[in-house]
Amino acid sequence: MAERSGSGVLSAPTAPVGHAGAHSAPQGYLRRYVFSTDHKVIGLQYLLTAMFMALVGGGLAALIRVQVAWPTLAVVAPETYLSVVTMHGTIMVFFVVSLALVSGFGNFLIPLQIGARDMAYPLLNALSYWTIVPGCLLMLLAFFVEGGAAAAGWTAYPPLSALAEAVPGSGLGQTLWLLAMALFIASFTMGGLNYITTILNCRAKGMTLMRMPLSVWMFFVSAILGVLAFPPLTAAALMLLGDRHLGTSFFLPGGLVFGEEVLAHEGGTPLLFQHLFWFLGHPEVYVIVLPAVGIAFDVIAAHARRPPFGYRISVWATLLIAFLSMIVWGHHMYVSGMNPLVGEYFSIATVSITAPFSVLGINLIASLWRAKIRFTTAMVFALGIISVIGTGGLGGLYLGTSTSDIYFHDSYFVVGHFHLMIGVVTLMGTFAACYHWFPKMFGRLMDERLGKLHFWLTYVPMMAVFVLMHYQGLSGMLRRYYDHSMYAFQAEGIRLARTISYFAFAAIAGQLLFLVNFGWSALRGRRASENPWEATSMEWNTASPAPHGNFEADPVARRGPYDYAPPGSRQDFAPQWTA
Amino acid sequence: MSSSPAAPAAAPGRGLPVLLALAFVACALLIVLGVWTHGRMPTLASRHGASIDAVIRYLLVATGILFLLGHGVLAFFVLRYAGAGERGSPHASARTEWRWALVPVLVMCVLAEGGVLIVGLPAFRQLYVDTPADPWVVEVVGKQFEWLVHYPGADGMFGESRAELVSDARNPLGLDRKDPNVKDDVWTRGQLRLPVGRPVVIRLRALDVIHSFTVPEFRVKQDLIPGFLGRTQFEPTRAGKYEIACAELCGLGHYRMRGFIEVQEQSEVDEWLSDQDPAF
């Protein structure tokens, strides 16, 4: 498959751009490890930053679980609870998953896998990382200002997010939130432009687009989506800042009353913000889910010893998913008062995504057909991804169908669903990537026994937590409640709260195990050879860890990225760089 | 380096594949079983709700089958193709690959779009499109953190409201006493009486931030957007007491923004209403 060398846009440039092999590694600690322009160092910086932010986000998750399951303890006050929920969501989506998976592994893998020596714009790459650092700091700083951190939910709907009168967190905390998000988007856009340029211009000789690994394809599509979808949120953030501080009324209608005080705003509409937010918000789901799927394809191919089923079809399905993901944002707004006919359109478009997405699912499963599976930790995580995508994806139908969404909207069903898709799938993708590509980072292997334990402490408790939340949603339990005990109709759902919390604590403990394994293996892990998994794609054509400049000589791609079990050969695999 | 690779790190023991396959099967079975044991919805109390429940039941069956099938195949492949050994060529022809792509596309188009259009549309119509004959009309106004209920009174006309007249204690709706329609209007804090077996139209508006009017038993959820006059309609089919909850995060007291609905015979509602003091 994919042996054909195309022409036009499909043909690879003859000479890779980027700095030449003769270029020597920078000396000095600061230039080498802190203000580095090497994509691998930057990738690792993103990954470590995300791990740190994950400690904060995970801690907040634990707080939420304690409050929901034991409301009488009142571990946090109601206003703090809303800040905790808001910041947990924001940090996890943008500053953990996006950073670790898209920025971290995107940076680390793209040049290595396409046979480039670095990103197209190494300096821009460093700049994008150093833009996200103040973003993280501003986000964390918000916990310590008057009124506390933002409390309007990670979706930050105005008027709640626009007016300090509406909720304490809508004071300085919300301003910091908006500034941090603007920095995040600036950083992510720089990164996305860099990915697109690198993939289009810096591929090694012979590396046609259809010879790129699926992980690179998915990073590519994810970057395009990000660049197209994120700027509207920057606009929305600026408009919201205007409403908050400059007296504009983009999102604020006339006649708002707080404590008998009529506000001077006039003429805006809160729905505009929802459209702008979800125009980013929905593609963002695919921005972070697609790379996890791509990684699953790569990892499964290497450890199942066979090419992925339907490589070309998967590429086309991904492009179709990306296109559709841009025109379905309104499914977050079925009950917002949007015209129901428009809602019907969004419903029809939304559930049509299940067609190309289930093609990816079938291709993942079929990639095991007649395989010779090696059950490495990376592989079991990739298998777990298939199970979780199946579960979460099918749950999406209940929400994409406008009629049933009337019942499920803003219930725990939604919470369970999106955590499976953009929480568990993406985390497991990140983990599969860590276990698989660790040798290229540190020249060592991660501990397999700890890794397997980590898998069980991830898959089992996380599935339990988020599937049980679906049942809570079915029984009518609503999200973002400080205390559910007042309501008779929520009594059924709340019965499951403690069980969920116990599973959540187990899942969090499992992740600490991963951090221990990561740190210990980086220093003391078993030394890895150049190609410990006997894999075929280009990144295994260099030393472990990969040196500055990535490759000794300019690499040439002579075949597809997944030549496992090549017909007529006694060997089980034929690397991409071999004739 | 490619000719004699070091042994891959993972020992392909027999235990792990069995455990994994069992986990996938157990996960699938438990999830489906859980729908019976833990997925009970509040007892239905509205006419259009039957169609919403039908959609949910349809999805439970349709996705349940796909879910079991997918996990079954996954578990089988994990067991069957564990470790090395002789098996046929894993290479599939392009035709086979396209054929297998066509299967999920067709299945999902029929299943998912069928759910939206064939099973789903009737309920949507009842909720949004049909104009009910002789409805009971009432207004619900959301503010931090309570539901204000506004009845039009005997004249059937709602009096004017103005933001600058809002006074939390005496006139939370900001009713304009100069408007002749206001005289017989009645308002309550969170007490909504509805007649059983008669269509209800509820006008919805919010004074401060977005709220969402939710009654799970009625399968009703509709946002109240400041600046918009929204509406929702349904027909209560069971007399009894219900709770109104807010489904859209609206601030500190979001979780305690509770209202009460009492569904009674029309005559009882009328009698109760006539006992209430008019607004002015």
- Whole-number radius of gyration of chain A? 24 Å
What would the average pLDDT of chain B be, to the nearest integer?
Answer: 91
Largest interface: A-B, 126 and 114 residues
Main sheet: strands, sense, barrel of chain B: 5 strands, mixed
Tally of distinct domains of chain A: 1
Q: What is shown here, in short?
A:
The complex is a heterodimer of chains A (579) and B (280). Chain A has 17 helices and two strands.
Q: How would you describe the overall organization of this protein?
A:
The complex is a heterodimer of chains A (579) and B (280). By secondary structure, chain A is mainly α. Chain A has 17 helices and two strands. In chain B, the strands form two sheets. Chain B has a five-stranded mixed sheet. In chain B, strands 4-10-9-6-7 form a five-stranded mixed sheet. Chain B is elongated, with a radius of gyration of 28 Å. Chain B contains four helices and ten strands. Chain B has helices spanning 15-38, 49-80, 94-129, 266-275; strands spanning 136-143, 146-151, 186-189, 191-195, 200-206, 211-215, 220-224, 230-234, 240-246, 259-264. Chains A and B meet through helix 3, strand 1, helix 8, helix 9 and helix 10 of A and helix 1, helix 2, helix 3, strand 7 and strand 9 of B.
Labels describing this entry:
heterodimer, A: 579 residues, mainly alpha, Cytochrome C Oxidase, Chain A, B: 280 residues, alpha+beta, Immunoglobulin-like, 2 domains, five-stranded mixed sheet, 10 strands, elongated
Write the layout of secondary structure elements.
The complex is a heterodimer of chains A (579) and B (280).
Chain A: H1 29-34, H2 39-69, H3 78-114, H4 122-141, H5 172-201, H6 214-229, H7 231-245, E1 257-258, E2 261-262, H8 270-304, H9 311-325, H10 340-352, H11 354-366, H12 377-400, H13 402-408, H14 412-442, H15 448-474, H16 491-494, H17 497-524
Antiparallel strand pairs in A: 1-2
Helix pairs in contact in A: 2-3, 2-4, 2-17, 3-5, 3-6, 3-8, 3-14, 4-5, 5-6, 5-7, 6-8, 6-9, 7-8, 8-9, 8-12, 8-14, 9-11, 11-12, 12-14, 12-15, 14-15, 15-17
Chain B: H1 15-38, H2 49-80, H3 94-129, E1 136-143, E2 146-151, E3 186-189, E4 191-195, E5 200-206, E6 211-215, E7 220-224, E8 230-234, E9 240-246, E10 259-264, H4 266-275
Parallel strand pairs in B: 1-5, 4-10
Antiparallel strand pairs in B: 1-2, 2-3, 5-8, 6-7, 6-9, 9-10
Helix pairs in contact in B: 1-2, 2-3
